[in-house]
Amino acid sequence: MFDEKRWAEVPAVIDGIDARLVAAGARGVGPGLRVLDSCCGPGRHALELARRGCAVTGVDLSASYLEAARESARADGLEIEFVEADIRDFERPASFDLALNLFTSFGYFATAEEDVAALRRLRASLAPGGALVLETIGKETAARDFTEGEWFERGGDLVCTSYAIEGDWEYLRNTWTVVRGGKRFDRGFRQRLYSAVELRGALREAGFGGEIGFFGKIDGSPYGPAADSLVVLAMATPGSARPC
């Protein structure tokens, strides 16, 4: 999941987020910005944000990811708070200027109501004028790029994937077989797919009352036929930023 390429792309991702915030009239990435990195994994983005002077809290449910993140922070001499928690439960009212949910970490709960509950927690944790940046797979791009499976190598592992659509394009089911050191590991999961308009509705239901803008990449490309992913910038309160 997190090979050298994934780590190398992080500075550009944070640059893109900074540009989107500034363009929307919000506070950009820099010293003193309070950031909640939701589903932080091994801390790729949290580490880079801390290097830029941000006060970062990373939240994840995986103890092993969090331990790896803490080790990296110690090695780099960075002070980052890492919390083991479910994002459906974690909330610190009005404590952050920016909330992140990146690398397609959204949509894995059993019900759409739980997705909204997680968004509601993120909204409650944002201070007035705060913003959420969320990156996921859009239903539009999933339909455009759908394939039944593929093989590839990542980080020295051989990976075989198979995909299937469930319901009325509600879920994308993923099955991964990883061969590592002669051993085979099988994992499966499904992700709820959102179109841009469906995600906008979920964000409104969760209490995001400000401007909501969609992009096809972190770099601000339009969410159109050439989009790579579905990136949303949602402002917590009305009047806190110019339209995206």
Pick out its properties.
244 residues, alpha/beta, Rossmann fold, N-terminal domain of TfIIb, 2 domains, 4-stranded antiparallel beta sheet, 11 strands, globular, disordered C terminus
Please tell me about this protein's structure.
The protein has seven helices and eleven strands. The protein has 244 residues and is an alpha/beta fold. Helix 5 (112-125) links the parallel strand 4 and strand 5 (126-136). Residues 240-244 have low confidence and may be disordered. The strands form two sheets. The chain has a seven-stranded mixed beta sheet with strand order 3-2-1-4-5-11-10, sandwiched between helices. It has two domains: 4-138 and 194-235, Vaccinia Virus protein VP39 (Rossmann fold); 141-191, Single Sheet (N-terminal domain of TfIIb).
Summarize the structure.
The protein has 244 residues and is α/β, with parallel strands linked by helices. Helix content is 30%, strand content 32%.
